[in-house]
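Every protein is a chain of amino acids, and every chain bends into a shape of its own. The protein below has been through that process, and both of its lines are reproduced in full.
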Amino acid sequence: MEKVTILAPEKLFDAWIDPSFLPEGENKYYLRNRQSKRPQSEWRHLTSDEIERLVLNNNNAASWDSIYVTDEFSPRYIKNNNFYGTVRIGRVSERGLQFHDLRLPVGITNSSIHSCDIGDDCAIHDVHYLSHYIIGDRCMLFNIHEMSTTDHSKFGNGIIKDGEKESVRVQLEIMNETGCRKVCPFEGMITADAYLWGKYVDDKALQTKLKEITQNSQDNHRGYYGTVGESCVIKTSEIIKDAKIGPYCYIKGASKLKNITILSSEKEATQIGENVILVNGIVGYGSRIFYGCTAVKFVIGTNCKLKYGARVIDTILGDNSTISCCEALNNLVFPAHEQHHNNSFLIASCIKGQSNMAAGATVGSNHNSRSNDNEVVAGRGFWPGLCTSIKHSSIFPSYTLLSKGAYPAELNIKLPFSVVGNNEAQGRLEVMPAFWWNYNMYALARNNWKFQTRDTRVTKVQHIEFDTFAPDSMEEALTAIALLEVWTAKAWLKSQGQGWEDKSEQELRKIGAELFAGDASVVDGLKVLGEGMEKSRREVVILKAYKAHKAYKDMITHYLINNVIAYMEAHPEADFEQMTAALSTERVKSWVNMGGQLMKESDVDTLRADIGAGALDSWKAIHERYDSIWERYPMDKFNHAYACYCELHGLDKMTAEDWLAAIEDEKEVRRFICDQVRASREKDYHNPFRRATYRNQDEMIAAIGELDDNSFVKLIKKETEEVLVMLDALKSRV
């Protein structure tokens, strides 16, 4: 434990940087002078009259010769302060500043200022200890206990300074509790960076280079000052130490902010609220953190929210996400994640975005093991329902909904858009594939709309695929079609008293495809069993396989025509012959969700190789590569949709007749989506238990509105009418 020591007077004010860490010919202020936006020529010493007035105003200074001001300085508004070291003060006038209901006069009162630069027209009052900060113009600092910067501050970046040991480097232990996937946070880090670093731990060259790149992204010299950008308001806060605070940030009632960067701008102002503790991390632009939250070792993306006592440790949270009330430890969470409930728990996981954690959900708990060495991986749209408990290691495809239950064993669900249930009464796991499409289209279609609507980011560094029907989910749909055909064929052969051990997968698929092309009652009468989806000996029963098989095929058609519409809008001069010539039936099967941006695995492999070889030697260069891949993505996605459709229908190339048939099929799919959106919502109006809470029909309509007045139902109906007209127009271009 460190002890209080006595300092000589000269060390009290001058001993900030150990002289051994100063470059030859430089003094302890050389970095401060580089950080300062005001030219050194604009500072001047105090006049004797100004010193006299400052003394009369009950100000003290270790040396008045160390106080510098500008020509627009008025000493009458500087009262009851102590100044130590070199302090530079910008314009001080009789004006005041206001933010919300807080009104303060420009000036400095009742404060202790140690070696700071203070911008023009600042209001600094009752700041008990302000040390080694550069304060921007028009800032309001009111009632702060301690605000200081050390000479070795890293502002939340995972680097080490001159003379420091490797052990002090901040590293986030994401995706796994053992620390085997450690990453170093840095200003500007996005979830794609974290996944690249955390996932490919076996790529030693990549790991070495990423650490070097991060270390080199910041100057390792000691002596950088903390900064507060222009027009910031910081009031009634306890400890702010080693902080880099962007412009227009609003901090009120914070308990402790230590070793952090808070990114903020005029268009994306960040807010930190009451009783918040933030230590060792990066806060993204436009984020809101309020009401007793604690975050330690973290990166929070752009336009995120932490609220109501959330506890976030060793976690990276993607853009447009919210965590409130609950606990999240050792996670990598991609953009558009929602977790609102006090008793939900997320640990040792990689959640790939557009997800929602219900109350009582316990994801990644390790109660099935004596160790903490595993993790949960969930694709886009993951939704564990009320009071759900699952174990690691478990894997979930896109848009998996877990119904209430304590799942007793590890899971590897292989069918996207499914609802999964633990049927304890019958001692089996039940999976209903394509549940979202067949029975909850309102939620599925609304997800696609709401994620784009809620993306209010101005700074969009992380590219995000919001479309439900994209290469990741559609590859899973093709896999699901194959699995359903094989499993259904086995169920039928068993019902006929025949075995399947001597049949190849292709033979089983052919039998299954013929069954799905026939009478639905035949398939519905079979007990179809899934394989390899739960680590247990109990049955995994597939429900409503016939409807699911058709749904997955309709999704592929929908996926293709959506991309046709996008292509034709981008290339209004093109016809179908030209478009088809630009496409290939060679299907890219392996895609990687890189923090929300989908990439071909081959592109990721090339990226990794280029980083490892030193061809990409900065995070800026790596982000530019992400950008170039994103620019190619619309065509990559379209080609994938085309190849998926051709694979599904056994086509070497789509002819004009094939295109016309696909468009006609899509018209039916669009009508189905529109009808199902309305039907999904209509259930609430006819469910007698939902109606029972209202006195009468009038009260219910007053509370939830008329069905046909629902804004989203109306939106889908309008869009469907427009798309049907567009599809008819497309037929003329075939």
About this structure: DSSP finds 18 helices and 45 strands in the chain. The longest strand covers residues 233-245. Residues 659 and 734 are 7 Å apart (CA to CA). The chain has a mean pLDDT of 94.
